[in-house]
Amino acid sequence: MPVRRGWSRPRGGAANVTAPRPYGGASQPPVVKDPSFRRSLTLFRAFLKEQDDPEACYSLLARDAVDQVEAYDGSVAGRTVVDVGGGGGYFTEEFRRRGAYAYLFEPDVAELGAKPPEGAVVADGYLLPLRDGVADVTFSSNVLEHVADPQTFLSELARVTRPGGLIYVSFTNWLSPWGGHEWAPWHYFGAERARARYRRRTGRAAKHTLGENLFAVHIGATLRQVRARDDVEVVSARSRYWPFLAEAVVKAPGIREFATWNLLLILRRCPP
Q1: Pair 104, 124: CB distance under 8 Å
Q2: Which positions fall inside the Methyltransferase type domain (predicted)?
Q3: pLDDT tens for each residue of 159-181
């Protein structure tokens, strides 16, 4: 269930960040048990209506994602959360509803929409305008497949996270049924063929181009790269949406490249 955006090269730049107050109040009930068939079906149905009702789709996805963060790291109330590449700010807004001090950093002004969250900053994930160790939680949902240099991007997420802090990273892997984004699942027959089919079917050019704002990221290679790092510890590597045995499917080489759907990495920042 990919979020549609591009992030292929650094743009950087300094920025001043205001401090919006958290909304506070009780958190909403969980979407449903994670993992479960009911949850996967609920999210899939919402995603099918993403074009017609993005508010409902991404609000539901945001609730589900913050539930996952809290399941691994406890309540976010009163904590500093950095949302990197959060688009229209649905995740930032949900973190604030849970009482967090959440900040959105998005490189594409067009992705922010008409009403971005208060304090949103146009900034690139390769060079965040933040001091070291400022975040209790650093959050990145469905961004890594749009990044030309994942290692540099992950290094920046780690840099701005305090020692012991949590890093949430998810991405749609290339061989997932959704790996081609708007032209999936025809990407299995080749990217250019899939893009040409999309143009014929819709009458417009596809938003994503392989090698420009969409990259073929694979589960096995990503796991090896992350586990080799000395600045983060892998707490969990699991499918974000798979309805059962979410961690087990990621342990099966070959099969995981198709069945994982979307890899969720829960990382803990190691002391420098």
Answers
A1: no
A2: 82-169
A3: 999 999 999 999 999 999 999 99
